[in-house]
Amino acid sequence: MQQGELTEEELQQMQAEERILEEKLKEVEKTRKYNKFFNASSLALMKACPNDILCELGVRAYTGSRDVPQDLIKANGLFQQAELKAETNYERSQVKYFHSMTEKFRLQQEWVNSKRNID
């Protein structure tokens, strides 16, 4: 065994801890109350906001970060607002690009998780 490698027992312990953490996160997610984000005030702000900013916020909401929790409903809503607001072909293409990239990311994550569950 080389320095820095985990033993089989340590690896199994880490996997068990990961499963416990995932279960606890699922329990917390069930208790989370959803706040309605798309109200009259936020829609007025979105109308005044440039499309590239809406797309960036959509990506951040989709992936989640320290200051923006992951929220797929909010992300899709931001992309829809950006698409409705788009006036030029460039803006529409930009919105479609960001939306398709987040969908690609979602599909990749599902594939990785399915492979993890098979192994």
Q: Care to describe what's here?
A:
- The structure is a single chain.
- With 119 residues, the chain is mostly helical.
- The chain has a domain of 79 residues.
- Helices cover 76% and strands 0% of the residues.
- The chain contains five helices and no strands.
- The model has no long low-confidence stretch (mean pLDDT 85).
- The best one-word shape is elongated
Largest sheet: none
* Number of separate strands: 0
**In angstroms, what separates the terminal alpha carbons?**
23 Å
Q: What's the gyration radius in Å?
A: 19 Å
Mean pLDDT over the residues: 85
Question: Which spans of ≥5 residues are poorly predicted at pLDDT below 50?
Answer: none
Please, how many helices?
Answer: 5
Helix and strand succession? HHHHH
**Approximately how much beta-strand content do the residues carry?**
under 5%
List the helices and strands and how they pair.
Elements: H1 8-31, H2 40-48, H3 51-63, H4 72-85, H5 89-118
Helix pairs in contact: 3-4, 3-5, 4-5
Which features would summarize this protein structure in a list?
119 residues, mainly alpha, elongated
Short description:
The protein is mainly alpha-helical and 119 residues long. It has a domain at 40-118.
